[in-house]
């Protein structure tokens, strides 16, 4: 670093992590790359703002351009070494368009305007200015809004790269609710098209950024159940892992499990005295059997349902059911990643059924499924879930809990239903070897 930078620098210039202590994450603060959203989430999560109602500039004032304890740290800092380090990647051309709309077309007091760029300035001249700015030998003297993403961090300083288009999905996987569009800059609505020669020039100027994705796919986070992370990350607890990985952690226990054979004989009495009286009167014409295992529930559902979709996280279980119900044309099969109902059309299902499986699901996985339930259910459609009512050992290993029950309760399940616009019809707390260990919930869209 040269002598000009020996003095304390404005955060306008520094390369920083936005530190979210609640989520135990450090996000690289890249302007025009989701940083405003990440700052807003952080000021809410960590209690810096009461309701997060600040406008965009207010968010930056709170957690952008002033010292705020440990909410901003240099990317080279060794503070919070066990936090997951994430860089959000945005296509450089998209990022330039966002800069152009916001700083040239929409902000008369911006650095770009002060440099003489106006809405009337030809794009070719703006590219000349851009090329001149990118020519600074020290990346910290490049305006953060046009600084290449590759100049914000070294690859060894991050664990995961998330595409901006996937940011909401990633945030959801670590427990953050979907981010409202109102959080984004209003200038995003200004239409701009770049001629092909301008795009070619930008690709050349931001070659380093394109190489991030080309050369570092091992760190790229994907919305799948096989997250491509081959780096030696420090061991992190389940809450910090992608949601699909949390679901798979539980699902792996039920690949060809001997429990299925042991539990089958009890299904007749469970159905007659407990399950069917609870769900009687629902519309079973198009039913999902979620986490079906070896199909002991499907046998009962066949007696009342016109069509059944068997859904399971394990291909081994789907293969078993396909052999068991071979030739039954009213039964179809879907493999899930443990959080979604892929390929199921909106408002196409009349009843969702899940018995003796959700008791093991992580609470965030349940919340994700409830969102999907609302999507696929017809108006008035119902769902039945047998889930845990065990509230000890929050965040602990499910395998040390009685019956491998995960953290959940009747009130929490009802709360999640309300959040997803599902109405509880009835609930029943019941014993399962341990008093009040489980709960039955019937809900309706």
From TrEMBL:
GO cellular component terms given for this protein: membrane
A GO molecular-function annotation: sulfotransferase activity
Residue ranges of domain Methyltransferase in the record: 289-381
Pfam families: Methyltransf_25, Sulfotransfer_2
Keywords noted in UniProt: Methyltransferase, Transferase
Keyword Magnesium: no
Superkingdom field: Bacteria
GO biological process, one term: methylation
PANTHER family hit by this protein: METHYLTRANSF_11 DOMAIN-CONTAINING PROTEIN, METHYLTRANSFERASE TYPE 11 DOMAIN-CONTAINING PROTEIN
Stated name of the protein: Methyltransferase type 11
